[in-house]
From TrEMBL:
Signal peptide: none annotated. Its EC number is 4.3.3.7. It comes from Thalassoglobus polymorphus. One of its GO terms (molecular function) is 4-hydroxy-tetrahydrodipicolinate synthase activity. This is 4-hydroxy-tetrahydrodipicolinate synthase. SMART domains: DHDPS. Keywords: Lyase. It comes from the Bacteria.
Length: 374
């Protein structure tokens, strides 16, 4: 082949590619211009309840952080104060025991006594409904808490997978056993497990919802979260899906159809309640975004400050008149449960405290007016 022919062919190929690129770019440009705007796609519309069943079991249900005395004992008086704080904040609900520290680092007797304290306290609350956590290492362990909860008649219960569950059939039998005890209250399933346990498939969650009329409530936090949320919401048997994961995805997930939030964020209970009201009404999306963005600014302190849910949040609970101490129990090496409690007092530097308070200042316009007095 002659050199001039080779050059000619290369020139022709280059021209063809450039032309194709121009067409593609033009098509892309036209598509971008004609596509719906972000405001249209992500428009905040009022959250509508999927089911009329158990209407009190909707909205934010913050998990109570377990309070401890200076000696590391559970402070049941402060636990009751947390419930009153949630009610003062007009939170739709509260949950305990459910976070890892309260599920794994408390004795059986401590959990049963705490459930009794909260059941007694909740009788005098105006707004906040009580949801009790009922789960265990295995079915027998879980049933101890389920039978105790049945006697206390909370608004609802929540249960995570058993530590010993290895298959979907294990989970199926575990929650069927729970259904034989809790027949009146709604049952929410938390989808994440600990200690190597498995998460329930969306198919199993839908199956249980079809089998038991008080099931079909899900705290969805297993990956991939968004596809799982969409899959659950496609089923008419699912009565309600709650967001989780520290509230980081709550704003987006509420537009997909979630109807509440479960997370250990009691320090912001009044903010969560106001966000929920805006989600329900759809009236002021600008305020909703503003409030939510300032809330997530607080959450990001976990990247710079000690701990997370039991870290700087303990300072806020103390600052807001709920906690007396910042004492926690800790896990052992590799997340193991120690034979004896490991007690730690949270220590923050003046610089860290200043950063917490500087960020919290932006939330003050949204806080409930007045001061919580216990």
């Amino acid at each position: 082949m002659k050199n001039e022919d080779l050059v000619s062919r290369r020139t022709l190929l280059k021209s063809t590619l450039l032309g194709a690129s121009s067409v593609a770019a033009g098509t892309l440009s036209q598509t971008s211009i004609s596509a719906a705007s972000p405001e249209t796609i992500a428009k905040q519309v009022p959250v509508k309840l999927r089911s009329p069943d158990y209407p009190r079991f909707r909205g934010p249900f913050p998990i109570l952080s377990t309070p401890f005395t200076n000696s590391g004992e559970v402070d049941f008086e402060v636990l009751a104060r947390e419930a009153r704080f949630a009610d003062w904040c007009e939170s739709p609900g509260m949950i305990w025991p459910q976070s890892n520290d309260s599920v794994d680092l408390l004795t059986q007797n401590e959990k049963l006594e705490g459930m009794e304290v909260l059941a007694k306290t909740s009788r005098n609350l105006k707004t906040t409904a009580l949801c009790l956590g009922v789960q265990g290492e295995d079915t027998d362990d879980m049933l101890v808490y389920a039978k105790h909860a049945r006697k206390l008649s909370p608004t609802a219960v929540i249960s995570r997978p058993p530590d010993t569950g290895k298959t979907q059939e294990d989970l199926r039998q575990y929650w069927r056993a729970l259904a034989s005890v809790i027949t009146e209250q709604p049952v929410m399933i938390q989808t994440t497990a600990r200690r190597g346990g498995v998460s329930p498939s969306t198919e199993l969650l839908i199956e249980l919802a079809e089998e038991f009329p008080n099931f079909g409530y899900v705290k969805e936090e297993s990956n991939p979260v968004i596809p799982r949320v969409r899959k659950l919401l496609e089923s008419p048997s699912i009565r309600s899906v709650f967001s989780a994961r520290g509230a980081y995805g709550w704003l987006y997930e509420s537009r997909l159809g979630t109807e509440g939030l479960v997370t250990e964020r009691l320090a912001y209970a009044d903010i969560l309640a106001k966000i929920w009201k805006l989600m329900r009404s759809g009236d002021d999306p600008a305020m909703l975004k503003d409030m939510y963005s300032k809330l997530t600014l607080m959450f990001n302190l976990s990247q710079t400050h000690p701990g997370n849910l039991r870290g700087y949040s303990l300072y806020l609970l103390k600052m807001r008149g709920v906690f007396n101490t910042m004492i926690s129990r800790q896990y052992g090496p590799n997340g193991t449960t120690p034979a004896q409690p490991i007690i730690r007092d949270l220590t923050l530097s003046n610089e860290e405290i200043a950063e917490i308070e500087w960020r919290f200042e932006s939330l003050k316009p949204f806080l409930k007016p007045g001061k919580f007095t216990g």
